[in-house]
Amino acid sequence: MAKSASLLLLLLSILTIAAAARNSGASNFIKSKCSAATYPDLCVQSLSNFASTIQQNPRQLVQTALIVSLSRAQSARSFVWKLTKFSGLKPREHAALKDCMEEVGDTVDRLNKSVEELKRVSGSKKKDFLWHISNVETWVSAAMTDENTCSDGFAGTALNGRIKSSVRARIVDVTRVISNALSLINKYAENQS
């Protein structure tokens, strides 16, 4: 019995070391690819939790970056929607929030399309690859524009306050994550062409 327990512990140790080595390789891969992103530290931070999924697969890295962007955009949309329900909002704040919610909704739609379009890239011919990846790049770029438009709605001093700073903080985060995803997509497209 002691021998089988020792063997089991040895086997578990070997498996643990192998898993750690795989995750270390994936983490290094993520760090390497994120070095070309607009916000490298944020890129690494937002993708590191998915190292075991990403491994060292460039397409999976891009797919995960898009999914992370989509998740953050959905969270921002929910946050802005909740803010529209606050009582005591100034009319301009309410209008800016409604406009922002529409823009963030457009971002979510475009990122959803991008995630689906990227799935079509796998195994496609070069001509088809270029078509699909171009669509992804266009929609992700448009998603960034939507986020910037939301933020622009709070320009000027008339809307200064907690609502403005809360929304802007969320939107800046989403925009940066999308920007990183776009950088990774562009690099992926460049390497595949």
TrEMBL record:
Coiled-coil blocks: none
Protein's name according to its UniProt entry: Pectinesterase inhibitor domain-containing protein
Superkingdom of this protein's organism: Eukaryota
Keyword flag Ubl conjugation: no
Domain Pectinesterase inhibitor: 25-184
Alphabetically ordered keywords of this record: Signal
Species whose genome carries this gene: Citrullus colocynthis (colocynth)
Classification via Gene3D superfamilies: Invertase/pectin methylesterase inhibitor family protein
